[in-house]
Design a protein that fits this description.
antiviral defense, Type III-B CRISPR module RAMP protein Cmr4, alpha+beta, twelve-stranded mixed sheet, globular, two-stranded antiparallel sheet
Length: 311
């Protein structure tokens, strides 16, 4: 049984390829997705591996590694680790916008799933309920993102995302402002009250968080990822191999996901560490730090910043 709980926010600062294996579709190397929503996700096993790797690289006390995460297979003193990480679900996804460069798009289902997860691990949030939303509509907290359009003699505010236009139901939604400010204060790193490196993005997620309908958001989360062509070069000829062209999908930078982080006392049988101390060790090492997750690490993929919010 796990005695301490926390939310682990992961904010992508580079494309992230958490691969799902080869596929028979247009994209040869797709990213992991939830079966029921088709939203991009990170498997908990991959996150735990990244945390272990990050802890090994950043911690000054390497003797804690096996006690917190469990020993490597094949060792004689096998025991369970004290750290468990669940799958990370999507909270906000960057989408190109006519105004403001890009917005942090989300949807009612993604926000309510995040609210439920935070509640289950003891993180109390006071997000007001959002107004009902139909397909083709959106909620904004920043009126500067809108464009005015006149139709049948009436003026309407619209939001342009990529090639699509959405009717603005509320251009300064107070409930959405509250959610954006909570994410600004909790989901992105800050240090000593203010970290200059993240201040722009903290302010932007508070102002440019946009709610689309579940259906409209699902389109972008599936079709607005970063797809890169790769070509295998023949070492002998220096030219592309026949059949060497393949496509790899990445989660775009500025995506935000959240996962549950659970800990128990260590179970090595000697000098066991209390769950409060285990959480303290994990948070002290990775909170606000850059981690590498997923594949293609040598090409700069998979850089995420971790933020731990305790329940």
């Amino acid at each position: 049984m796990f005695q301490k709980h926390a939310a682990l926010f992961l904010y992508a600062v580079s494309p992230v390829h958490m691969g799902a294996g080869q596929a028979i579709g247009v994209i040869d190397n797709p990213i992991q997705r939830e079966r029921h929503t088709n939203h991009p996700c990170f498997a908990g096993s991959g996150i735990k591996g990244a945390l272990r790797h990050g802890f090994a690289a950043l911690s000054d006390d390497k003797s804690l590694l096996d006690r917190l995460f469990g020993p490597e297979a094949g060792k004689s003193d096998l025991h369970a680790g004290a750290v468990s990480v669940g799958d990370a679900q999507l909270v906000a996804f960057p989408v190109r916008s006519l105004k403001g460069g890009y917005v942090y798009a989300t949807c009612p289902t993604a926000l309510e799933r995040a609210r439920r997860l935070l509640s289950l691990i003891g993180v109390q949030v006071t997000w007001p309920p959002l107004p009902d939303l139909n397909e083709g509509e959106c909620l904004l907290a920043n009126p500067a993102l809108t464009t005015k359009r006149t139709e049948n003699g009436k003026q309407a505010s619209v939001l342009h995302l990529e090639a699509f236009e959405y009717v603005v139901k509320e251009e300064k939604c107070e409930a959405l402002e509250s959610i954006g400010n909570w994410l600004k204060d909790n989901a992105l790193p800050q240090q000593n009250g203010k970290d200059e490196a993240f201040e722009y993005f903290r302010s932007k997620i508070a102002s440019d968080l946009v709610v689309l309908s579940d259906t409209d958001f699902a389109y972008f989360s599936e079709h607005a990822t970063l797809v890169e062509p790769h070509v295998r070069i023949n070492d002998a000829t220096g030219t592309a191999d026949d059949g060497g062209l393949f496509y790899t999908e990445n989660l775009p930078p500025e995506s935000l996901l959240v996962a549950p982080l659970l800990v128990s006392r260590t179970r090595s049988g000697k000098d066991d560490i209390a769950p409060e101390a285990v959480m303290g060790h994990i948070k002290g090492v990775i909170d606000g730090k850059l981690l590498q997750i997923g594949g293609d690490a040598t090409t700069g993929r998979g850089l995420v910043v971790a933020k731990v919010v305790e329940g």
